[in-house]
């Protein structure tokens, strides 16, 4: 029978190897020469990079918890990693969703703010960011839900819905993954917001443009 100490040792070794592989992949994305002619590919790579870097950070946290003998606390992080893996695969299958993911950032902030009394200055900043993204991407108006003869005004909530990922369950089915994986992982609670662009926006510069680039920091983002 395998001892608890041996299980712990094997788990830590497995995660240590995974962290190193994720670090290599993230570095290769950072040094990737962005193609000048394909904006969708450029945004796809930046979106994938943000999800990979955060998955890497979660892996380091999981390894630390395992080493501390707190393995029961990793389940919410594993769920977050699974959901980000689904998003990664979905972006690889549908490259346009990478751009949607990045462009959705101000509209996600608007959606989060709508049910709270925040300062007028903060709300004005969010609205200005939403308007700027619409101005640079006029096709976003096509996500409007109402049709009338008057000129269309940007409906930020409708745009947010149009740019959002499908439900995780629907993405799992679309990717033809085993739904049992989702059912099992869904039983875990979550302390993460499933790779929201609001959470990950600080990993990218020029996030609202067609030339986003990953920001690699010399801090806890990398294994020692």
Topology:
Layout (H helix, E strand, L loop, with lengths): L3 H27 L8 H29 L7 H19 L2 H8 L1 H9 L6 H17 L19 H8 L4 H7 L4 H8 L10 H4 L3 E2 L7 E2 L10
Antiparallel strand pairs: 1-2
What would your notes on this structure say?
The chain is mainly alpha-helical. 61% of the residues lie in helices and 2% in strands. It has helices at 4-30, 39-67, 75-93, 96-103, 105-113, 120-136, 156-163, 168-174, 179-186, 197-200; strands spanning 204-205, 213-214. The chain is elongated and about 65 Å long.
* Quantity of strands, as a count: 2
Binned strand content: under 5%
What string gives the helices and strands in order?
HHHHHHHHHHEE
Whole-number average pLDDT? 75
The helical percent reads 55-70%
Number of helices: 10
Structural class: mainly alpha
Shape, please? Answer: elongated
Q: Extract low-pLDDT stretches.
A: 31-37, 218-224
Q: What radius of gyration results from the CA coordinates? A: 20 Å
Oligomer: single chain
Q: State the end-to-end distance.
A: 33 Å
Largest sheet descriptor:
2 strands, antiparallel
Quick gist of this model?
The chain is an all-alpha fold.
Describe this protein with a few key phrases.
224 residues; mainly alpha; two-stranded antiparallel ribbon; 10 helices; 2 strands; 61% helix; 2% strand; elongated; disordered C terminus
């Amino acid at each position: 029978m395998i001892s608890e100490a041996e299980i712990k040792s094997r788990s830590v070794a497995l995660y240590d190897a995974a962290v190193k592989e994720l670090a290599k992949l993230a570095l290769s994305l950072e040094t990737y020469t962005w193609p000048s002619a394909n904006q969708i590919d450029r945004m796809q790579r930046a979106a994938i990079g943000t999800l990979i870097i955060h998955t890497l950070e979660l892996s380091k946290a999981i390894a630390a918890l395992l080493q501390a003998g707190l393995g029961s606390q990793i389940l919410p992080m594993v769920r977050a990693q699974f959901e980000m893996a689904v998003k990664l695969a979905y972006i690889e299958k549908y490259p346009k969703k990478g751009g949607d993911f990045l462009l959705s950032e101000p509209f996600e902030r608007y959606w989060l703010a709508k049910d709270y009394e925040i300062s007028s200055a903060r709300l004005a900043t969010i609205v200005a960011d939403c308007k700027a993204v619409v101005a640079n991407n006029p096709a976003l108006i096509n996500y409007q839900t109402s049709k009338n003869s008057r000129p269309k005004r940007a409906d930020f909530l409708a745009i947010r819905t149009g740019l959002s990922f499908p439900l995780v369950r629907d993405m799992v089915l679309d990717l033809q993954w085993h739904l049992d994986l989702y059912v099992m992982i869904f039983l875990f609670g979550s302390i993460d917001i499933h790779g929201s662009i609001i959470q990950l926006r600080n990993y990218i510069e020029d996030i609202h443009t067609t030339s986003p680039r990953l920001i690699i920091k010399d801090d806890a983002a990398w294994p020692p």
